Amino acid sequence: MRGSSSAPTERVVDIVELLSQPRNRRMRFSDIAEELGQTQGTAHAILKTLSDRGWVTRDPAGKSFELGPMLSLIAASLNTARPLAHVAREAARRLSRKLDMPVSVVEVAGDELLITAFESPAHNPLREAVTDRIPYLPPFGVAFAAWDTSDAQRDWITRGSAGDIDLEHRLLAVLARTRDRGYDVDWMTPALAQIAHALGAVSADTLPAGLRPIIDQFRVELTSGIVDEEVTGEGRTVASISAPALDDAGHTRLILGVHPMLPMTTPDIEQVAQQLLREIRTLVSDTGD
């Protein structure tokens, strides 16, 4: 959405998102203020309002805050308000059982990709997503960008190429191949994904001027290496095979992704991809999109 953001609103949302993270289910007032860099006066005023409205509750004994019952009420309405996301979660659960592999649902929100569902077999070491949000820039979000408008594709490429013309052309070729094939294949390991995520989260505004070109070059080299694997990845460990659920205009609503984390040949990949695409056709049909 275009336009300037509201700093006071961001501070409220920051607190709700902080408490929604599994490791932060219960937090003391001082820890919330310190974690978010808010003054105690600001944090107190926000928490007081959120408590009054039922968005958070305070444990008088432990003096800690956690998410409140109003959010449960909101969550209960999501199945009706966002039917595609609800059906996608069920599809992820079904596909995970069928393939015996982890499966995720990913949606785009502004300049981030959000993992809104993650289903994994009980025996799989990848029990949860490496992170629940990813910067929407190369090498992430190929399956979104491949079906986006030309202008949006150029914006996505520009965010990750740092002016490297050769890399821009290669990223365009990746998007074209992905669209022709109907799905994206990612050879990035979880460790490499964490590095790429950390680099993507670095804001140029907070970097000393001398470090900016170094970080940009590191991003380019990392993205370039991953793009090259798109062509030379036969037999390498496949991190994800993902495909879009499209709207009537042909743009991506969400992504369903399988995470084998296994060495795979081209026939192996194609076999998983076909089951993935069948599941996506079913979920789109079930929601009438």
TrEMBL record:
SUPFAM superfamilies per the UniProt record, alphabetical: GAF domain-like, Winged helix' DNA-binding domain
CDD domains in the cross-refs: HTH_ARSR
Superkingdom of this protein's organism: Bacteria
UniProt keyword terms in alphabetical order: Transcription, Transcription regulation
Keyword ATP-binding on entry: no
Signal peptide (UniProt feature, chain positions): none
Pfam family, one: HTH_IclR
Annotated protein name in UniProt: Glycerol operon regulatory protein
UniProt keyword Disulfide bond, yes or no: no
GO biological process annotation, one example: negative regulation of DNA-templated transcription
UniProt gene name: gylR_2
Taxonomy of the source species: Bacteria, Bacillati, Actinomycetota, Actinomycetes, Mycobacteriales
Molecular function per GO: DNA binding; DNA-binding transcription factor activity
Boundaries of every HTH iclR-type domain copy: 6-69
InterPro entries: ArsR-like_HTH, GAF-like_dom_sf, HTH_MetabolicPath_Reg, Tscrpt_reg_IclR_N, WH-like_DNA-bd_sf, WH_DNA-bd_sf
